[in-house]
């Protein structure tokens, strides 16, 4: 399996769209197109292997399930993980002859994604640094108080110049790495046999990374000891009933609806009690 020029260009384009807030906002870009779970489908469509793309995207998403960017600080760049890590993982899985749904394939994808995500932080901060240059142009225009110049400059600073940053630090690296991906994966296959220490180490590290992602998620959502019971209940259902993700999501939505109705009932109880008290006072006055 190889990646041609058109496919590499499309992957680079989506890497730009995934990190460019002006294209639909951060919600559509970074937090939708940039997520491995969504990007896996996009990469699968581009490379012509949708099932493997979705499986690899889901495996990598678990590692970064709780990743946020507070104040622009990132420990790993999911844009690079999605549009560089997933294509390389798909190539590696095919080159090694692994079953995409196997544990070994998921571990390999997680390890490659983590490596690419760490490298991608350089690209992230490179984009942010160059964007500061464009912002300085906008501030200089504002200081002139020349409204014609301001109206002419601000759209360029907000919507045109950032494309230069993302082309340099998103499109170009993604295009080059994906084009060289086949040879890189072939070298991995030649010098890192499946039964060697290097590949076994890679599989071991990759199998541990999802646990790190889940642990970070628990740290964010678990506020009291009783929350662990709810958290473990979902794993119990999946383990005992062998439900897939869609079935687990439906069950979770059902319990969320029950909790919502209970909270609504609690909120309405003081109002009902107050109305009942007012009615009792009126009856006493009538007597």
Overview in brief:
The protein has 287 residues and is mainly alpha-helical. It has helices at residues 5-19, 25-33, 36-47, 50-63, 78-96, 103-143, 147-179, 181-191, 197-221, 227-241, 245-286. The radius of gyration is 25 Å and the shape is flat.
Question: How would you describe what is shown here?
Answer:
With 287 residues, this protein is mostly helical. It has 2 domains: 3-220, no CATH class; 224-286, no CATH class. Helix content is 82%, strand content 0%. The chain contains 11 helices and no strands. It has helices spanning 5-19, 25-33, 36-47, 50-63, 78-96, 103-143, 147-179, 181-191, 197-221, 227-241, 245-286. Helix 1 runs antiparallel to helix 3, helix 4 packs across helix 9 (197-221) and helix 6 (103-143) packs across helix 9. The chain starts with a helix and ends with a helix. InterPro entries: PTS_IIC_man. It comes from Olsenella uli (strain ATCC 49627 / DSM 7084 / CCUG 31166 / CIP 109912 / JCM 12494 / LMG 11480 / NCIMB 702895 / VPI D76D-27C). It is found in: Cell membrane. This is Phosphotransferase system PTS sorbose-specific IIC subunit.
């Amino acid at each position: 399996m190889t990646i041609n020029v058109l496919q590499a260009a499309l992957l680079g384009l989506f890497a730009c769209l995934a990190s460019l807030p002006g294209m639909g906002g951060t919600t559509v870009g970074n937090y939708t197109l940039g997520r491995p779970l969504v990007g896996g489908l996009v990469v699968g469509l581009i490379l012509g292997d949708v099932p493997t793309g979705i499986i690899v995207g889901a495996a990598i998403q678990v590692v970064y399930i709780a990743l946020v960017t507070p104040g622009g600080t990132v420990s790993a760049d999911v844009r690079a993980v999605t549009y560089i890590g997933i294509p390389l993982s798909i190539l590696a899985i095919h080159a090694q002859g692994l079953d995409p749904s196997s544990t070994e394939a998921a571990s390999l994808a997680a390890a490659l994604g983590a490596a690419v995500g760490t490298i991608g932080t350089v690209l992230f901060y490179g984009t942010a640094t160059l964007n500061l240059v464009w912002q300085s142009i906008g501030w200089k225009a504002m200081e002139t108080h020349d409204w014609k110049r301001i109206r002419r400059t601000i759209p360029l600073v907000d919507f045109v110049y950032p494309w230069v940053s993302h082309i340099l630090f998103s499109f170009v690296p993604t295009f080059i790495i994906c084009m060289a991906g086949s040879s890189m994966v072939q070298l991995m296959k030649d010098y890192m046999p499946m039964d060697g220490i290097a590949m076994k180490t890679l599989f071991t590290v990759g199998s541990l990374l999802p646990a790190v992602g889940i642990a970070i998620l628990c740290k964010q959502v678990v506020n009291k000891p009783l929350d662990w019971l709810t958290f473990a209940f979902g794993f119990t259902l999946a383990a005992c009933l062998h439900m897939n993700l869609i079935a687990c999501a439906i069950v979770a939505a059902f319990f969320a609806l029950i909790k919502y109705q209970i909270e609504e009932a609690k909120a309405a109880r003081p109002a009902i009690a107050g109305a009942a008290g007012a009615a009792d006072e009126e009856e006493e006055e009538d007597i």
